Amino acid sequence: MSDAFGRNPHPNLAAGAAAGAGVLAAVAALATRGAPRWVRATLVMGAVVVACGIGIHAYRVMSQPTTLTVAAGSFDGDAPKLMTAIASKLNAANAPVRLKVVEKMTAAEAASALSKGETDLAVIRPDSGDFAAARAILVVAHAAVLIIAPPGSGVASMDDLKGKTIGVVGGQINQTVTAVIAREYEFEKNKTRFRYLLPVEAGPAVQLKQVQALLIVMPLSERYIARVREILARSLKGKVTLVPIESAGAIASINKAFESYDLPKGIIRGSPPVPDDDVTTLRMPLYLVASKQVSDDAAGALAKAVLDARRELVSEHPLLAHITQPDKDKDAFIPIHPGAAAFFEGEQKSFFDRHGDQLFYGSMLFGSLASLLAAVWRFMVRSDRVLVERPLTRLFALMDEVRNAHDEADLVHAEEAIDEILRVQLEGAPPGEIDAGEAAAVSLATHRLERMLSQKRAEFTAAAAAPLVRFRQV
Fold first, then answer.
1. Does the structure show a pLDDT above 70 at 133?
2. pTM for the structure as a whole
3. C-alpha torsion 438→443→446→452, nearest 10
């Protein structure tokens, strides 16, 4: 189960890799400070290549789309098919968030998978589980409660069902619906029974008068209404009655999973119209919900991607036309996910809003790393030659040697030392980078030494000629 917007690598991972490059380069440089230049260059460049490879891998991981698992189930199998169609469209559109559908038998099983942490998302009915940790992304559709009485049954109101048997199409998934209705109308006290039926059992049960009415919970789409018409056409002759749930408002005020709703005239059949007037009943939203662990970015991107896909899929799957935003009130039965709320309100943060701090500190880090790498580069390319004393210092030291010279041999040694100092000065300086000021100072010191050498030689010559002059005078 992957959720790159919630648990994928942090956006600073690439910056971390850059920091790693600088650190590795610095460590390599310090560890090889005494090695030849080519060894230092090889190790430092190797460290940089490794760190850059890590950064490229991190970028590829971060650029991967988010994949969220979604549990979907219904007794007719339509919910998984619908989510599979959406998932395929998201893949084809290269959406930033993708869906992996986990098919379940019922909406209750889908809700259980979400509550156990087995999936990131689920398509659920709000009466089918505990959704304290769930957050709504979208309302996929609304399911209305239809209570249909066959012709000749004499049932026109909820009171007429007391003491009778109601067939509940869809099975145990509708337990909560039957419980709230039974409690409101005191069915248990009046010995009204509920019999849970599979869709294929509904028609025969009515024909055999095993039930005196059918309770169906379904979306009001053409496909589902056609199924009801098919059941009624095969099983019944005459005009059926839609029994109003007059206390729908009272039920909805107590149980927030439901809401009161007026079925429009002629929703089941147009001529003669069934019902022949608007009928009050219950309905509930069918949600696409997410766990709290799904990030705001993922939730917002998913809401947008599904709504974009709806436009192209609605002709093939008309139920998608019912997709809408969830209730954004704070006291909603299932609170809207903050990421979905931000999308619907147009308040989604831009890239710079989300990562402004990271970019600011990243730029500071980049500047520090640039300085660090520059220092490493200077260390890496420095000359392998052993550092020597500055030429001026050595030249001034030679002046004392010249002053204290005892013979011509000392002067010759000083001249050789001067030549060596100048040679090292020229060879050690990078091409075109000789400091002009220091070169002028070295030149002046050299001239002075040459002058001192000349004066010293003159002194030696005069000292050598003095005995000869005294001899001639004698």
1. yes
2. 0.65
3. -120
